[in-house]
UniProtKB/TrEMBL annotation:
It is found in: Cell membrane. InterPro entries: P-loop_NTPase, Small_GTP-bd, Small_GTPase, Small_GTPase_Rho. This is Signal transducer. Pfam families: Ras. The lineage of its organism: Eukaryota, Fungi, Fungi incertae sedis, Mucoromycota, Mucoromycotina. NCBIfam families: small_GTP (TIGR00231). It is a lipid-anchor.
């Protein structure tokens, strides 16, 4: 391993179609994917510079959110350093599934691993057509306050982003990288304290 380079693993979970892949593709390639192709499993490598001058080689693990892959997805979790739990701000079910589905799975397979809650598709906050469409079916966008409240409840930090408009994408990945590095130091310290 090159001096000054740390290797970390980030796993992204959330409902199918909530924007997980777009977030990772836009971070990695700086271009929004032009068509939706459901993910089975995808991996990317990104070199993330930290403000300390350190470079982190971050393995980005994109997982399938569809229930058909519930038995395969756990293969992504070993040696995870940070988890992004994503939901789309215009899909109430994806928000509800954070607590009902994703948090229990992440807690089971990645106990004591730092997690970030990420509201994707932030661009819909300015999209009147989407706001009206949701209103016609008795729904509304998830608010930033709702996201922050849920993050507090599950012990995560909260971020919002738009891959389509490239808003806060870098910030989400950088925050996840810092959480992975800090979480690793806490786990190492805890192990050392336990041994002593």
């Amino acid at each position: 391993m090159t001096r000054g380079v740390a290797r970390k693993k980030l796993v992204v979970v959330g409902d199918g179609g909530c924007g997980k892949t777009s977030l990772l593709v836009v971070y990695q390639k700086k271009a929004f994917p032009q068509r939706y192709v459901p993910t089975v499993f995808e991996n990317y490598i990104a070199n993330v510079p930290l403000d300390t001058g350190k470079i982190v080689e971050l393995a980005l693990w994109d997982t399938a959110g569809q229930e058909d892959y519930d038995r395969l997805r756990p293969l992504s979790y070993p040696e995870t350093d940070v988890v992004l739990i994503c939901f789309a701000i215009n899909l109430r079910t994806s928000f509800t599934n954070v607590q009902d589905r994703w948090l229990p799975e992440v807690t089971h397979f990645c106990e004591n691993v730092p997690k970030l809650l990420v509201g994707t598709k932030l661009d819909f906050r300015q999209n009147q057509e989407e706001i009206q469409r949701l209103g016609l079916v008795g729904q509304r966008l998830i608010t930033e306050e709702e996201g922050e409240q849920l993050a507090r409840e599950i012990g995560a930090k909260y971020y919002e982003c738009s891959a389509m408009q490239k808003i806060n994408v870098d910030e989400v990945i950088e925050a996840a990288t810092k959480a992975a590095v800090a979480g690793n130091m806490r786990r190492l310290h805890k192990r050392l304290c336990t041994i002593l």
